[in-house]
Amino acid sequence: GAGVSQSPRYKVAKRGQDVALRCDPISGHVSLFWYQQALGQGPEFLTYFQNEAQLDKSGLPSDRFFAERPEGSVSTLKIQRTQQEDSAVYLCASSRGTGSYEQYFGPGTRLTVT
Amino acid sequence: ELKVEQNPLFLSMQEGKNYTIYCNYSTTSDRLYWYRQDPGKSLESLFVLLSNGAVKQEGRLMASLDTKARLSTLHITAAVHDLSATYFCAVDWELVFGKGTKLTVNP
User: Fold this and answer.
1) Are the Cβ atoms of A42 and B94 closer than 8 angstroms?
2) pLDDT at A100 over 80
3) In angstroms, what is the C-alpha Rg of chain B?
4) Alpha-carbon span B65 to B36, nearest angstrom
5) Which residues of A touch B50 (CB under 8 A)?
6) Mean model confidence pLDDT for chain A
7) Does residue A81 come out as left (phi exceeding 0), alpha (psi in the -120 to 50 range) or beta?
8) Which residues on chain A are in Cβ contact (under 8 Å) with B34?
9) Could you read off the pLDDT of B75-102 as tens digits, one per residue?
10) CA of B103: how far to CAs of A2, A18, B42, B79, in Å?
11) Is B28 exposed, middle or buried (0-12, 13-18, 19+ CB in 10 A)?
12) Whether A107 contacts A7, CB under 8 Å
């Protein structure tokens, strides 16, 4: 079946603009994660959903970052008033459930803030 | 706070040689993952290790886990060019990643 998809794949934003990044998880996957990967670094956890409930948002770097998954499927990561330090690849991953141990990653969205 | 350290961060090796990548983590965890990332691509799951002494092998790669030492190894046997990539270990349910090991296999 289809894997995790993300859109857009590339986004250029001017400093101060708002952006919205979309993630379509694998159908039926209960858990959804967002990670931020800066150039040359490992991914860093941002937030986690179980169905529509956001169970952990401790990794969101500031209150400019907001994530939602209103119907327990598609998720959107929104960044308000983008800053240059927000430039990174944003990765989405999904997993079958809390008892399932494997996360499947999407291709990522590369955000460049100019 | 859980910290994950990998070494080496850069590894250049010749085809046919063997080498090991190390992953240390700072607090107890019941799961460890290895991922591969090619340039400009996403993460591909290689291994999931869930118990002390777990060993998994796929082709030229073998991963092991020692939960008492908080150490996992990724052993490469008879490297080939196609293995060139960045390898990450990650720990815990909300994955905490190491910085990655960039592997280059030269002919």
Assistant:
1) no
2) no
3) 13
4) 17
5) 101
6) 95
7) left
8) none
9) 999 999 999 999 999 998 889 999 999 9
10) 29, 37, 16, 10
11) exposed
12) no
Please say if the pLDDT value at position B31 is more than 90: no
User: Residues A45-72: pLDDT tens digits?
Assistant: 999 999 999 999 999 999 999 999 999 9
Question: Looking at chain A, how many residues does it have?
Answer: 114
Torsion sign over Cα B81, B82, B86, B88:
negative
Instruction: Report the C-alpha gap between A3 and A107 in whole angstroms.
Output: 9
Q: Which residue has the tokens 């993952």?
A: B33
Sign (positive/negative) of CA torsion A61, A63, A65, A68? positive
Residue B60 identity:
R
Q: Is B41 on the interface with A (CB under 8 A)?
A: yes
B47-69 mean pLDDT: 93
User: Does residue A55 belong to the interface with chain B, where contact is any CB pair within 8 Å?
Assistant: no
